[in-house]
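Practice problem 4.
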């Protein structure tokens, strides 16, 4: 298994002398061109980080926008409320972490050095795009998923590892809500594979699985309880509800019909919100848009 192989990352001088400095250099050159570019999603994440900093925790609980990036950005409000530049800088650092983890996996798989270099350089456009052009937590999600996979593939079923990967699974969920389902499915299949090939350690595998799932559910369940207190129904995310209604309405209109764009002004979710997009869950779709009129409804 991969976990039995030791990788001396620091020994690969080409990565630290050429690949990683090249990434940092490109980010440094391009940062000034993109430090103020922001999308509505990024504004929402930034606003939520302000609520966390000023301890308005009720407004910081959001079922549509995943919370982790806002939690991590909240200290940057100390230096000023316009923290988009910090958002971009944070994404640059996280992108560097993704690059390091990709390098570790390639080294562990003993792929030829030339192919490693090409593979890592090919990732540059994607990393630079999500680090500098986008203000989303996708890079953070990718980094945490790679961390989870790095520890998951190690043949160690002790309590510490179980708690670690369960905790990383919880952080993946906090980074992007859709990781909730991914973690449960992949984690269960992965442990099922370990159980299938195991010889004499199946009891440890079952124990490790139960501990990691319990840790994950403790973290995720706590946040879901907060969402329940706010929205009065149980869900690991409210994004699915909004997106489903959006697709139903768009099918009838014949184009992607965001109500906050085409249906006039909406009252923000609370008195400190700057737009309805800070919490799209509060948008009420027209009743007619919820009536299925074609087979697309059933496909969904």
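Answer key:
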């Amino acid at each position: 298994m991969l976990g039995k192989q030791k990788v001396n990352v620091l020994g690969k001088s080409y990565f630290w002398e050429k690949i990683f400095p090249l990434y940092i250099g490109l980010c440094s050159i391009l940062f000034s061109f993109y430090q103020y570019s922001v999308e509505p999603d990024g504004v929402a994440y930034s606003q939520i980080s302000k609520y966390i900093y000023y301890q308005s925790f009720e407004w910081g609980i959001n079922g549509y926008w995943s919370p982790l990036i806002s939690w991590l950005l909240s200290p940057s409000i100390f230096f000023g409320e316009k923290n988009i530049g910090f958002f971009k800088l944070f994404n640059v650092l996280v992108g560097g972490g993704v690059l390091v983890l990709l390098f570790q996996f390639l080294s562990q798989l003993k792929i030829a050095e030339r192919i490693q270099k090409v593979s890592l350089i090919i990732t540059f456009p994607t990393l630079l795009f999500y680090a500098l052009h986008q203000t989303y937590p996708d890079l953070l999600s990718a980094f945490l998923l790679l961390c989870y996979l790095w520890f998951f593939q190690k043949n160690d079923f002790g309590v510490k590892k179980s708690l670690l990967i369960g905790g990383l699974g919880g952080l993946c969920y906090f980074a992007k809500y859709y990781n909730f389902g991914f973690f449960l499915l992949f984690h269960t299949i992965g442990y099922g594979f370990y159980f299938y090939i195991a010889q004499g350690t199946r009891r440890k595998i079952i124990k490790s699985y139960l501990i990691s799932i319990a840790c994950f559910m403790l973290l995720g369940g706590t946040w879901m309880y907060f969402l329940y207190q706010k929205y009065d129904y149980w869900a690991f995310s409210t994004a699915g509800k909004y997106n489903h209604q959006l697709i139903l309405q768009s099918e009838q209109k014949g184009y992607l019909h965001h109500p906050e764009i085409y249906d006039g002004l909406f009252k923000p979710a609370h008195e400190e919100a700057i737009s309805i997009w800070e919490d799209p869950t509060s948008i009420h779709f027209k009743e007619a848009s919820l009536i299925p009129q074609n087979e697309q409804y059933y496909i969904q």
